[in-house]
Structure formats: structure tokens, C-alpha cells
Batch of 2 targets.
Target 1
Amino acid sequence: MPSAAALYELPDLRLAIADYLKHHHMNFNHTVGGQCQAFPNCELPFSHIQICLYASPLSAAWAIGCYNSIIITTDGNQDWPHSGLQAQWSNGDHIGNVVPSFQICAPVHLIPCFGQKLHPNLNVHLSNELSSSFWLNKYWTKELFHALSP
């Protein structure tokens, strides 16, 4: 598992998995984001993981990797898409988290809002990393369009 954390540059992956397992075991709602509560030397009941995600690790073309955006629900009382959207952003740090598949509502396509002046290092591989605001492309899929249209 340390190799997966290194490959995707997620130093807190072990802690995120430990937090998820603790919440799952205690039947707590799993929240996404925030600082992990597990201790750095925590024990896990396994030593290997199988990665099933839409991401590419670091490469020559993708200096920071490539990760897809998704809409998730963190409140079992909410009924997406009828409950609407509330954005949650990280502080710019790459964070690892475990999201149960039943909390994933939809993959989404984000389009960076560039503003009046472009960042000098902006390119196709860094546009999401160097942008601070985005448009949600509701035309990306038919299902997303119908879910987000009034």
C-alpha cells in the first residue's frame, strides 16, 4: 500500500483508509474532507489494495497526475439532484480520501474560469490545478443535463 500512496502522491492514504474503516465499523456517516483522525502508525487489516479510480499517476505529460471530478453526497438525508449542489473545495493540497461507491452521484466535467489574466504556467495539463473557480458543464452528459436542468 505505501507504493500506491507514493504513486498517486497521497501521503495520508493510510490515514484516510483507517478513518473510513473506523466510521464504517461504528456505522457512522462517512464525511469527506478535513484532516484525518487516525494516527500515522495505525494498523490496517490488510497490506495491499486494489485501486479502482479514474486517475492517472504522475507522468512526463501530467506533472501532478490527472484526476476526475465527481459529485458525492455526504448526507444520507439529501436526495440529489433534488437537494441541489453545495461545493466543497480543498485548500489546494492534494488529499486522499475514501468515498464509498454509494455516495458517488455522478462524474462531472469542470471548465476553468480563467478571468482577466491567465496564469503564466497555464497549459492543458495544469488548467484545473492553477484555476481557482470553475463552471460545471451540465451539457457533458444527457443524464447530468436532465438532473441539473429546472
Target 2
Amino acid sequence: MTSFMASPTISTISRASFPATTSLSSFSHNRSRKFRITCNYVEANVKDDVRSATIDVVADVKTERVVVLGGSGFVGSAICKAAVSKGIEVISLSRLKLSSFFRSGRPTYPGSWVDQVNWIPGDVFYANWDDVLVGTTAVVSTLGGFGSEEQMLRINGEANVVAVNAAKDYGIPKFILISVHDYNLPSFLLSSGYFTGKRKAETEVLAKYPNSGVVLRPGFIYGKRRVNGFEVPLDLIGEPVERILRATENFTKPFSSLPASDLLLAPPVSVEDVALAVINAVTDDDFFGIFTIEQIKEAAEKVMAWSPLGTLLL
């Protein structure tokens, strides 16, 4: 049986090198980079075999660049943090809030990951997309909110539609939308501006990206949420409720068909799980369509199972 080992007489290995870049617009749309590694091998029990042939290993390294719309918010910041931890380049586009931002658009969140995100202040309705989307491999939208019917239709629906069309025009291969679970609500409640806007955005994503668009429909999202500089520990409520509902789901399942039953029975989802599900959507080209609360959890578990660094064994 042949074994491979480094030859003691020929030990040089060429290193991959990537050019440093600071300009957003200078990135190409290619999703991969190629590098070549030359190594030597000898037969087992053969010493100093300088006649052994060299082999070239050429690998494609997928480089991801993600734009997070609303990246300074509760869900958006968790997505940015998770993406940075996976070595993904991140750009955030968020509306400027003087109470929580410096003039550069950089939020005041603690943690070294904040320094690794390119924070851009702006509004999707007036964004200079050349500064944001060039070279991007995926756009993630966390845009949404409450207010009057008109406001909810605009932020939940129209803002996302604008973003989807901009991404499509720039040839971005994937769009990921954070939407909402319908809680099994009756149709007259789903006709509110909040749900109508969300479903309008979903329709646009799936129409423009039929084979790569992703719609995540979480229920109540819990975690440590920052509001006006203060941390609100939603996980103190959400985490135990999630555990209880998952432990009792076999008993509560018969009631799931009742109108609005999911207001009580749909398990909450941690913001970290939503963020990891987004990472799975960014990196897995076979992951597209509409995903339920349970599927979001499964996608997050898949990402958590990844090892930090891939290992090639010969």
C-alpha cells in the first residue's frame, strides 16, 4: 500500500496568496479563487527518493461576501457576527440612528467582530448600490417593523421589494429574507400591513430567485436585545418556553390545527439559530425555498456541526 509523506530532500511548498483590497467596487463577481500547492511524495520505506514525481493539487476556494440589510439591528447584528465567525466578508447597510451610531455608521456593540464588518449608513430607498452590492455573493434582508398600516406595508414589503430588484439587477446570485411565521392566524388577521408586506416580499424573492431565494419564517425570536444602549434579555423568557414546547410537542400537536393556536404552541427561536440558518443558506446552494421554524432549527444544527477548519486527509 502506498503512503504519502514529505520528502526530506524536497520540502518547499508554495503558499497561496491573495491580493489585499480596500475598495468595495474593485471586487469581481467570481465566487471562487484558485490556488496551487505543489507537494512531493515517496513510496513507503524509500528514503531520499528525489526521482519521485511531484503532484499538483489545485483547489477552488469559495469566497463569500454578504450584504446584510438592517445589519445593526437585533437579528441583523447576530447574522453579521455569525458570518464573521465563519470567515465570510460582511457589509451592513442600516439606517443611521444618532443615538446608537457614530457618524461612520458603526454601531456601539461590544466585541471584536464589530471591527470586521464594513458598516455603511443608508436607506434602501436611496442607497447607492454601486457602493454596496458590487462583488456580493448574497444579500440578507432583516428589514421589517411595526407601525401604521402604511408604514408596515412600506418597510415590510416595499423596502424588501426594492432590495430584491436591486440585487437581481446587479446579478447577485442569492437573496435571503427573514420573514415571519403565520401562527395559523385566520385570513382576516393576516391581511394586516405587517403580514401583507412580508408576504409581498416573499413573493418577490421567490419570483426573482426561484432556484436560490431563501425565505426563513421564524416565530418569536429571543436573545439579548439592545434597546437604546440597554440590554434586554429576551432569552430569559424565550429559551425556557422553547424547551417546554419542544418537550411537550407530542401532546400539543393535536391542537395545532386550531385557528391561531401557534400563538401559544409555536416554539420561539433563538437569534443565534436564525443567524446560523442564514449562514447555511449563504454557503449551501441546494438550500432554497421557504423554511419553517423546525427547518430553521435543523439548518442551524447543521452549521453547528461544521468543524472550524476543513481537514484533507490523504
